[in-house]
Design goal:
heterodimer; A: 378 residues; alpha+beta; seven-stranded antiparallel β-sheet; 16 strands; 36% helix; 32% strand; flat; B: 483 residues; eight-stranded antiparallel β-sheet; six-stranded mixed β-sheet; 23 strands; globular; Tr-type G domain-containing protein (chain B); methylation (chain B)
């Protein structure tokens, strides 16, 4: 995201002017824009006019509007943000107080004005504008008959394509059908990779799965690349990594991201850090269950006792909350940071973030065990 | 008037709901199973059957010698011709895998032969004096446990093959590094499918010079574990043997070092197994294991074990989860055509009137009046295995039931159960730990066709896996929501 203008004070009012550059910026914008903020952008409005002949005509007018946000909708598929709100500026075409829906998409600059720029918002802004944070990792999760082509970005994991075919048995009279079916399946996966993976942006392509299907696909990909002169694949050979995973389903992605061979390639990405943090939490839960807790009330109590070492939060908590709740979580985050603890904010669009979300969205690893939390009736 | 009457008559027989709204509508649950009355032809010929049918799963850690043992047995019993055997030997030697020649009887695909492992469940058949045995040779490799689950779910009894070599047995029990070896995992899974009879074949005795001490040591080490799994002492048979040297498979051992052994041969042990109970009195259900095309049976052929009821050529069946009706065009058992199959039979059924795209592995063929809709939220009672990490609300797992497998989420931890199976009240459940028993709610990503355990045992057993390990095994206590 390009930052064109910035003017705010910490925990005070301010305004920023931003231009989204890539699809992932939509997600950052979604996390930044909250109910009650004011958003200005150029947009199209259908205006009714009476012509000289007396008939009413609807005309589409380009204009710049500023609205007070009431609802934000994130469209993952089209990569567009739709914000609905009431008009707050005087405009020749639109009345004050009239409802309008602004659409934010790539390359459309907007200006966001908030009453309170808290630390979370500033952090989000920092992540969004970080130029080094644009590279992604592409992953193909493949098992016999099922494959997912995913792109793991800084904050968003998108499943670009799912390929599923029924592969018949490998023995007896139908064995010829098996060869044909599996080749068709591998061809479909290859086409999906060619279409959705942009090797100029992607840091590496991981092919993962159980058994030997991943090796089969790898071999197929390279033999077809030489046969059909697919330059894209031949040139980027070094970027392709094979990793073992226990299944070809999407949630096995977290195993892939924590595999050592992949770790050094993606060490600094947010996705890898998140997976690592969540794994630590689960390890603590199985080794020393009294030092791992989850749930808003439990975490609050643990914090009152200054017991939190690592705090894990899902960004969903900040997005959908009303102002006092958001303030509470922001204060919690700031105070854990100031007392020397770590805070990880998980993106709910990543596999690990989804899992944290199921656990209520907030969890913590404690410095010392708190046995009475178990018995307390919360 | 005449035509109107005819039309109305025709419409009475058609199930309008399934024709117009395929799949996704809210189907009312199936009528109670005890209202089902099996037809005469299903029971009548039951008594005429000369040999009982027995499904035998062969399980064990990777490289224990499962396929070789079975290949050898099939060869000795005349199921493999001399010419075929010569061919396997020659080809195996050429690829540098001379010792795998017997395994190649079952591992037919080029992939399996090249790597020297079994990847999918191979099916073969042979006869003993009392039984007609269907062998389900499972893969032992960690990655292929889902395939093993698919095969072993059809079993009536199992043969657990142990590698007696020093170090190999221990690896199978403790595992290499992370988690348990497949010896333990397979045994637990097999028991969770309701198998009560186990033949423990201690293989590769030739490598330990047929030592009685080694055999007894393995027995002592394994016995408490089997008891812990729920196998009764009376259901276990211990057989030392060597597949490579053909000792104690079909004939009494001839090697001088094995004279201390006075027990039955493998074949005798298999023959002494109890025949399984056949559920002919329940409505027809066939969980679909494989789908393929065949010259004799047409474009839409499914294969699997009939878990209940019976069908004959011309019978109408319902394909779930799609809800499409089809007619049985042809039936084959082990390559031979037959007119009907009953509960307990493993068959290839050719269907007419259905698009092969509606057939899914994990689907079920069922009686048209007793449909089996896909469930989207289940309540299950599970036992967490000792290798399982903590399970919390939101944990992502893969749920396996007969041949179906789906990624799923644990949506609620309902209650913890004590040793007797009673719910412990007022215990706030934060997470479940290994070796605990509990009732939980599971939501699969897509609906699975299954039944409550109390209604239909074979279709009510589930296992939960993740990250290459089996976390828990259990039964379906209640179906909360249908798709």
């Amino acid at each position: 995201m390009k930052l064109r203008h910035r003017d705010y004070i910490l925990n005070g009012p301010g305004v920023v002017k931003l231009t989204p550059e890539n699809p992932e910026d939509m997600w950052y914008a979604y996390n930044l824009i909250a109910v009650g903020d004011r958003l200005a952008a150029s947009t199209i409005r259908k205006v009714q006019r009476e012509t000289s002949s007396g008939t009413r005509e609807a005309e589409r007018v380009h204009t710049r509007l500023e609205i007070e946000v009431e609802a934000v909708d994130y469209d993952n598929v089209a990569n567009v943000l739709r914000i609905r709100g009431k008009n707050v500026t005087e405009n020749e075409h639109v009345k004050l107080g009239a409802y309008h829906t602004l659409e934010i998409d790539q390359q459309r600059p907007f200006s966001l004005s908030k009453d309170i720029w808290d630390s979370i918002a500033i952090d989000t802004l920092k992540w969004a504008c970080d130029p080094a944070a644009t590279s992604e990792v592409a992953a193909v999760m493949i098992q016999e008959g099922l494959a997912y082509v995913c792109l793991v970005g800084q904050s968003v994991t998108t499943t670009k394509m799912k390929i599923e075919t029924s592969i018949p048995r490998k023995h007896g009279p139908a064995i010829a059908g098996y060869e044909k079916a599996i080749n068709k399946f591998l061809e479909n996966v290859l086409q999906a990779v060619l279409r959705h993976v942009d090797f100029s942006i992607v840091r590496c392509l991981i092919i993962a799965g159980p058994g030997f299907t991943k090796d089969q696909f790898h071999n197929y990909m390279f033999s077809e690349a030489t046969k059909r002169e697919l330059r894209v694949i031949i040139e980027n050979k070094s970027k392709i990594v094979l990793v073992h995973a226990s299944s070809g389903y999407k949630h096995a992605l977290k195993e892939v991201l924590s595999a050592p061979s992949v770790m050094n390639l993606i060490m600094d990405t947010k996705a890898a850090k998140e997976v690592k943090a969540l794994k630590e939490f689960f390890d603590m839960l199985s080794n020393d269950p009294l030092r791992a807790i989850y749930g808003p009330k439990e975490v609050e109590i643990a914090h009152d006792r200054l017991a939190i070492q690592t705090l894990l939060l899902s960004d969903e908590l900040f997005r959908n909350a009303d102002i006092p709740t958001r303030r509470k979580y922001v204060d919690l985050t700031d105070s854990v940071k100031s007392s020397g603890g770590d805070v990880h904010i998980f993106s709910s669009m990543h596999v690990s973030g989804e899992q944290l979300g199921q656990l209520s969205g907030i969890a913590a690893i404690l410095r010392f065990p708190l046995p009475d939390l178990e018995d307390m009736d919360l | 008037m005449e035509m109107l009457n005819q039309a109305t008559e025709k419409l009475k027989g058609v199930d309008i709901k399934t024709e117009t709204e395929k799949g996704k509508h809210r189907r009312e649950p199936c009528p109670p199973l005890d209202t089902y009355e099996p037809e005469e032809w299903m029971l009548e010929t039951f008594k005429q059957e000369s040999k009982q049918l027995l499904h035998l799963a062969i399980v064990g850690h990777v490289d224990a010698g499962k396929s070789t043992l079975m290949g050898r047995l099939l060869h000795i019993l005349g199921q493999v011709s001399k010419k075929e055997m010569h061919k396997y030997e020659r080809e195996a030697k050429q690829s540098g895998k001379g010792s795998f020649s017997y395994a190649w009887v079952l591992d037919e695909s080029s992939e399996e032969r090249a790597r020297g492992i079994t990847m999918t469940v191979a099916v073969a058949q042979f006869e003993t004096p009392k039984f007609h045995i269907v062998v389900l040779d499972s893969p032992g490799h960690k990655d292929f446990v889902p395939n093993m689950i698919s095969g072993a779910s059809q079993a009536d009894a199992a043969v657990l093959v142990i590698d007696a070599c020093t170090g190999a047995f221990e690896a199978g029990m403790e595992g290499e590094g992370q988690g348990v070896g497949q010896t333990k995992e397979h045994t637990q899974l097999v028991r969770s499918f309701g198998v009560e009879q186990l033949v423990v074949a201690v293989n590769k005795m030739d490598a330990v010079e047929y030592s009685e001490d080694r055999f007894n040591a393995i027995k002592t080490s394994l016995r408490p574990f089997l008891k812990h799994c729920g196998f009764k002492e009376s259901g276990i048979r211990w057989i030392p043997l060597s597949a490579m040297e053909n000792e104690n498979l079909v004939t009494q051992p001839v090697n001088g070092q094995m004279l201390w052994y006075r027990g039955p041969t493998l074949l005798q042990a298999l023959d002494s197994l109890e025949p399984p109970v056949r559920n002919v009195a329940k409505p027809f259900r066939l969980p679909i294991a494989e789908i393929f095309k065949s010259r004799t049976l047409g474009q839409a052929v499914v294969s699997g074990k009939v878990e209940g009821g019976a069908v004959k050529i011309g019978s109408k069946v319902l394909v779930m989860p799609s809800g499409v009706s089809a007619t049985v065009k042809g039936i084959e058992q082990n390559g031979k055509t037959c007119t009907f199959v009953r509960a307990g039979d493993n068959a290839d059924v050719g269907l007419q009137g259905v698009d092969p795209a509606c057939l899914l592995q994990g689907g079920v063929l069922c009686h048209p009046d007793y449909p089996l809709p896909a469930a989207s939220l289940l309540e299950v009672k599970v036992l967490l295995l000792e290798t399982s990490g903590p399970l919390l609300r939101g944990s992502q797992v893969i749920i396996h039931c007969h041949h179906a497998k789906e990624p799923a989420k644990i949506t609620k931890l309902v209650s913890l159960l004590d040793q007797k199976g009673q719910a412990i009240p007022n215990k706030k459940l934060r997470c479940l730990l290994a070796n605990q028993r509990a009732v939980i709610e599971v939501k699969p990503e897509r609906g699975i066709c299954l039944e409550e355990y109390s209604r239909y045992k074979a279709l009510g057993r589930i296992s939960l896996r993740d990250a290459g390990k089996t976390l828990a095994v259990g039964i379906v206590t209640r179906i909360i929501e249908y798709e």
